[in-house]
Amino acid sequence: MKQYRSSPIAAFFDFDETLLAIDSAGIGFKVLKEQGYLTWAFMLKMMVIMLLRKVGVVDEQIMARTFLSFYRGRDLQPFVDSAQAFYEEYLQPNLSPEVLQKLRWHQEQGHQTVLVTGSIDYYLQPVMVDLGIDHLLCTHLELDADGLLSGRSKGPVCVGETKVTLAKDLAKSQGLDLTQSYAYGNSELDIPMLMEVGHPVIVNPTSGLVRHAQRYNWPSLV
User: Fold this and answer.
1) Own/partner pairs for 162-170, CB < 8 Å, 24+ apart?
2) Cβ–Cβ < 8 Å for 200, 171
3) pLDDT confidence bin for 181, thresholds 50/70/90
4) Could you give the angle at the alpha carbon of 191 between the alpha carbons of 190 and 192, nearest 5°?
5) What does the alpha-carbon distance between residue 98 and residue 125 come to, in Å, rounded to a whole number?
6) Which of 101, 131, 146, 195 has its CA 20 to 30 A from that of 20?
7) In whole angstroms, what is the distance from residue 2 CA to residue 201 CA?
8) In the prediction, which pLDDT does 62 show?
9) Which residues have CB under 8 Å from 28's CB, separation 6+?
10) Domain regions of the chain by residue span
């Protein structure tokens, strides 16, 4: 059984465009397309949803549920089996050096480290192992009665206020003091999590997050 650090201080890291300098979903789509998984109909549907999300017609939850529908009826194991190679080829080279340095600093201080992201669990496991992160709060895939993927999440999609709920549950189970803890995020969706800790830090921020951070004098890493 893994032994976690015992510090009451934690550092929560968003993944896409924070600890990872790029958007892993975009890379994932590219790889799935190359492997022949994606139909033109599904890609068109995602393009429409992403456009509607950009103009504010649909929210992140709807976009996430649309993406998860790709997995319906599929076997999880091939995705698990390919996760290490996907990490080594596409994710590891795109880890943010600045944020990675902060992660290492927190680990040196004995702080508990947490990856908190809307991304999917199976391809985050190699990240956790390679970087020695203590806890993972993310979106999990649901299996149906036949053991195949249902195309839905098991539990809530880990975005927005759900991040805060999961962080509070973790704090209670691990004895964390959120008022002494840190959080790193890049977009407006991270604001609830950033507001919850004593030391919020914005990373590669969107314009909306910049405006919010300026009101609260939050520091910016990159």
Assistant:
1) 163/12, 163/116, 163/137, 163/190, 163/192, 163/193, 164/192, 164/193, 164/196, 166/116, 166/137, 167/12, 167/114, 167/116, 167/137, 167/193, 167/196, 168/196, 170/10, 170/114, 170/135, 170/137
2) no
3) very high
4) 95
5) 22
6) 195
7) 28
8) 76
9) 86, 123
10) 10-216
CA distance 101 to 185: 15
This prediction has a pTM of 0.91
By the 8 A CB rule, do 45 and 121 touch? no
Residue keyed to tokens 């990856």: 115
Q: How many CB atoms lie within 10 A of CB 214?
A: 11
| Contact status, residue 116 vs residue 163, Cβ threshold 8 Å | yes
In the CATH hierarchy, which fold is given to the domain comprising 10-216?
Answer: Rossmann fold (3.40.50)
Q: Using CB atoms within 10 A of its CB, is residue 103 exposed (0-12), middle (13-18) or buried (19+)?
A: buried
pLDDT tens for 122-146 read 999 999 999 999 999 999 999 999 9
Structure confidence by residue, pLDDT tens digits, 89-106: 999 999 999 999 999 999
